[in-house]
């Protein structure tokens, strides 16, 4: 199973980063969001750290929807999905491989969003970066576990792409709240509750990693 | 016999019980000192929110059954429960807003329970949109069942996170359950039970409609032009 | 090697076929015939485990057999080169590293294009690459859904040879085809799918002319 996971991961990374559009669309959308929010600042004002953190996570969430739509669309070109289904390995390898690919791609995108948030929204890294780094990894892991599961919804083009966002965003609320809460502290917001947030994010990860493992094979099928 | 009996008796029971509850609400239960008449919203708000949650739990159960048995009946039950749940939680949100306006002077407050109800409303509204899509029927049922499970797993997380998020404010509703007078509590419990019957009747009715439509589709596909049944939602 | 037990399939409310039961042993080629829309492809997908039957069961009697499935879709990633495509499927199937991917490409006559993106290939070349993928697997069960479509004569000859090799190896081969004149001589057994059921199941020798004509019409 691990070999198949790695094979899927490597193939998705090659296809996304080296061939085709790569992250361009997702990155551009995220950056546009940050920019549009920067318009809400008056002259000489800055968004509060909490607002800035929320904008950062909003960009990440939109970016993640595009990433998983793109990752699952790869299999639809020549019906390679059927080929993956025929591999005598646990199907969860596909879920895990795509989740890993999405995780790396999302981290790469966030490497662009984070400076953009700081620059455009006039923030500074005045708080503790430690909890922010751990919540970043935990939140991304949860987003990718769930994104990889629900990304399979979009198979065979009957479900429109915008649907994934509508379904995914409300489910991600706890994670986005956790990410915003902790990252706001790193930007110099009021401190407190970081441990509780990290706990929520970890619980989310545990639940949806398990749900992904259990439910993915129901969703990823040969049906047209 | 009991199968044809139940759909008749449940709405009757629910209707009369709800009507009887009006007496409990307006005559039996005392008027609250600080809020006056507007506090009566509570007797409707609480059962709406509770039964909405039960509906979503029913969606979860039905989804699990569908995933293991693949029975179309379970899928139709999920559809009925989700529709009812969205309706009830929507009404709970509206009544909650009215309450908040009178009680705290704002239309909306980010109380953990209200927030959870709102997020649930969003999740299950998305679920209903998924149900409305034009997909092959079996595929749609499967996708909806997976989402039905995932959505319910999310509910406790949403609640906990909303609680931490607004931990600066004390839990507004927390004090209320303990602070109820016995008459008020009785009236509230009666309302919960009465709405429960009404809720069951609503779900039964909707499930019956969906069953009937599925049967008609089968008959239509059997007799009519074979392509006609295919594109139906 | 493969057993169908009372398999039925509906699309929505439309019946495709009902109560199909048959078993397939290794070392034989079965030709599956039927009109357009008789459900041949659906039956093949059920055999491959890609589609769930609406009722009944399809199961493999051998433990975890390797399945080769060749249909209209080529399973190819257009943005990857021929070699990368092959390498991906090789890794995904967890095959051991001794396989020479170049040799596999050589067998389907694609060595010269090994480093070209598969998106630039013609339909026939893409199908040949797909064939190379299947040959790499050495499948125990080979399911072919009109594999000749889009292939030139040389590739069809190659496919034919590979089918015969697989039969000698003891694989179970099930072939859906419309080209009866071409494929019937290969077959050890013929199945005719008609009116939602199996109208004929037996040796090609007894497969009478009217029935052949009926299913070609």
Mean pLDDT across every amino acid position of chain A: 89
Q: In whole angstroms, how far apart are the ends of chain B?
A: 31 Å
| Helix content bin of chain A | over 70%
Query: What series of H and E elements makes up the topology of chain A?
Result: HHHHHHHH
Straight-line N-to-C gap of chain A: 25 Å
Q: What's the total count of β strands of chain A?
A: 0
In percent, how helical is the residue content of chain B?
A: over 70%
What form of chain B results from the Cα inertia axes? globular
Assembly category: heterotrimer
Instruction: Quote the beta fraction of chain A.
Output: under 5%
Stretches of chain B where pLDDT is under 50 for at least 5 consecutive residues are: 168-178, 224-233
Biggest β-sheet of chain A, characterized?
none
Number of helices of chain A: 8
SS elements, strand count of chain B:
0
Helix/strand-derived class of chain B? mainly alpha
- Please, how many helices of chain B? 7
3D structure, described in words:
The complex is a heterotrimer of chains A (224), B (233) and C (217). Helices cover 75% and strands 0% of the residues of chain A. Chain A is mainly alpha-helical and 224 residues long. The two termini of chain A are 25 Å apart. The model of chain A has no long low-confidence stretch (mean pLDDT 89). Chain A is built from 8 helices and no strands. Chain A has one domain. In chain A, helix 3 runs antiparallel to helix 5 and helix 7 packs antiparallel against helix 8. Chain B has 233 residues and is mainly α. Chain B is globular. Chain C has 217 residues and is an alpha/beta fold. Chain C has a single domain, classed as 3-Layer(aba) Sandwich (Rossmann fold). Helix content of chain C is 33%, strand content 28%. Chain C has a 6-stranded mixed β-sheet with strand order 5-6-7-3-8-9, sandwiched between helices. In chain C, strands 2-1-4 form a 3-stranded antiparallel β-sheet, covered by helices on one side. The mean pLDDT of chain C is 86. The chains are: A mainly alpha (224), B mainly alpha (233), C alpha/beta (217). Chains in contact: A-B, A-C, B-C.
Summarize the entry for a quick read.
With 224 residues, chain A is an all-alpha fold. In chain A, 75% of the residues lie in helices and 0% in strands.
